[in-house]
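Running this now, will post back.
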Amino acid sequence: MLKFYIVSIKPVRILSGAFVLSTFLILVAFGQPKTDVDARQLPAEQTLNQKIIGLESHRYKVGLKKDDFAQITVKQDGVSVTVRLADSNNKTLVMASNQKDHEERKVISFVAAVAGDYFLDVSSVDPKDREGNYTIQRLAGRRATENDRKQADDAKGM
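Update: finished.
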């Protein structure tokens, strides 16, 4: 079911029409409720290669135990993507986005506060992007160390 929202925007200095449009579309896409039915299991220690095209979004499920450390790397090729980790209520926990470089690597590091399923969304951010690719890899889960916790806390601050 599609939901439509009315958004009121005050006139502000316009930076770039494409930037404003892509930022708005990201917010709309991530604001839509997603379910675990949409999600594909993201296995540990495997590399997945995916094709993605302008404003498309892919969802992956990551099962974690309490205090597990998860690290997921997404390398984009020919397309700009945003990577977002959410809890089972679709609340954003960590997000990595940068539209400048089409060959950039994005790394999500996270320590699970509770056991359960977490969801990783990989979304193309530029409606003008033609078909591109990304690779995604999840390290094997393990109990978080103090260094892991620091790395995850630093990632939240970005």
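The helical segments are 17-31, 146-157. More later if anyone needs it.
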